Amino acid sequence: MLRIADLRAGYGAAEVLHGVSLSVAPGEILCLMGRNGAGKTTLLRAAMGLLAPMGGAVWLGETRLDTLPAHRVPGAGLGYVPQGRRLFAGLSVAENLDVGLMAGQGGAALREEVLDFFPRLRDRLRQRAETLSGGEQQMLALARALCLGPRALLLDEPTEGLQPSMIAAIRDVVARKRTEGVAVLLVEQRLDAVLSVADRVAFLENGRLAEEMTAEALRAERTRAHRYLGV
Amino acid sequence: MEFGPHLMLATLEGAVTAAVLALTAAGLSLVFGVMRVVNIAHGEFFMLGAVLAWWVTQAVAGPWGFALALVIAPLLVGALAVVADVTILKRLSYDPERTIVATIGLLYILQQLTLMTYGPDARPVVAPFNTRIALPWLERGADGWALIWPWGLGTTTYKLAVIGAAAAVLCALWLFLARTRAGLVMRATQADREMATAFGVPVERVYALTFGLGAALAALAAVLIVPIQQAHYLMGADPLLLSFIVVIIGGLGSLPGTLVAAVLIGLSDGIISVFFSPTLAKILATLLVALVLVFRPQGLFGARGR
Predict the structure, then answer these.
(1) Is ipTM > 0.90 here?
(2) Nearest-CA residue of chain B relative to A150?
């Protein structure tokens, strides 16, 4: 479904990703781990087209994404939850969802379906996004991405700084999307969180794919993760 | 004339200034809010609106000519601004510093082209209607309160129409931004350009339309005021300065702030100009900007830390 082939990307002349290849199958969760500065966020931004790739290719199904203008990528079915949420702060909850709906094909039915995942947001539709709690903001960031009706989701540390009940709520939604066949590429720093949802785990080190394994293999040998995470 | 009627007259003149200023400044504020571009050429779009109004009313005489100018001038100036956006600002990646320099260049190009084609003269445009209305004043005499008609206290139907038209256009602008899909896209782009892209918004197209809309608002303001002021190739400087004063006081990018500041500056400009001098009005407005920049840099309605 989502296939990243030999992707190179960076900022200005500085290359950060040096030819990373990954693939995520429909209904699979691939967790991307690595130290700060390893290139995880850069990989997601380059896949979304927000950072012009220096080489390589990104495919979603039969659609090659890296040759599309950046604003056409979400319409092809790739949803993005960025690090730090980055909601449209001055807009209401409903308007944030509407922006997500505009790029997809779902319409009002999809909006209702998404709000069923997050009943707390339904009660706050007229509230400005910036006035929500941290957990509610993260729910909105995920809900906004789901409003696209994505075939694949890129999630950049979606549970960072949240209380356990919020983490569980977000994890449940991601798990449900997996059962619907959505491919999920999840950037996560916490090993326990990764092992609770992931099917496979990939480690990035200095902009290169260092190792890839099943979550089961990592569960059996957790110390292998410490080498890449520096813990 | 006594103080009370004199103040009322000055307030009415100030209201006309405020109405036109609110339209012009709303365009500047919209462009800065959405694109983060400080458009130094905004006053020249205003001037072009007035000059085009003169051309159109020369070609088609009478009230229909003026009505045509109200449509044609904003459309042409808006289209010119879209071309300027695509050919200049987009190529500079909307970099805040470089676009300031580029719009200074655009200012001189538009000004000198107008001088070469339109000439150096100030030319009048006839208002489509201009009936004088005498205004009453309430005064207490020996027999109690009575309405009197002081000599010189009056306005024209055209000036009242300018205030009404500006208010209607600003209401329409607010409805457009708050209630339409295009307005939502513009506000999302204003909030976070990159995230807007990540949700399918063609940001560069939004920028082009915003720049065109901002310029069209300035041109429309100029068409409304030109029967009162006359069209001249150097007439863009004052609206530009006053618009900057308004958007800084109101808060860069804030439409409500722009409207409140336009009323404040417009009325004070009218009143101080009548009772003292226009120069003092400009000095005080500039002083107010300095105070706002020192004590509340985000402006009255602007968000902190932008």
Answers:
(1) yes
(2) B199
Chain A positions with Cβ closer than 8 Å to B:
48-50, 69-75, 80, 82, 86-91, 95, 98-100, 102-104, 144, 148
Report domain extents, chain B.
Answer: 21-235
pLDDT in tens, B171-186: 999 999 999 999 999 9
- The tens digit of pLDDT for each residue in A120-159 reads 999 999 999 999 998 899 999 999 999 999 999 999 998 8
Tokens standing for residue B47: 């001037």
What whole-number distance in Å separates Cα of residue B233 and Cα of residue B116? 10
- Contact (Cβ atoms closer than 8 angstroms) between residue A28 and residue A178: yes
Distance CA B196, CA B192 (A): 6
pLDDT of residue B306: 41
Q: B113 in contact with A at a CB cutoff of 8 Å?
A: no
Q: Whole-angstrom Cα distance, residue B31 to residue B216?
A: 11
> In this predicted structure, what is the pLDDT of residue B44?
98
**d(CA A76, nearest CA chain B) in Å:** 10
Residue B302's closest chain A neighbor by CA?
A90
Q: What is the pLDDT of residues B41-71, one digit of tens each?
A: 999 999 999 999 999 999 998 899 999 999 9
Which CATH number is A2-91+154-229's, of 3.40.50.300, 3.10.520.10, 3.60.40.10, 3.40.50.720? 3.40.50.300
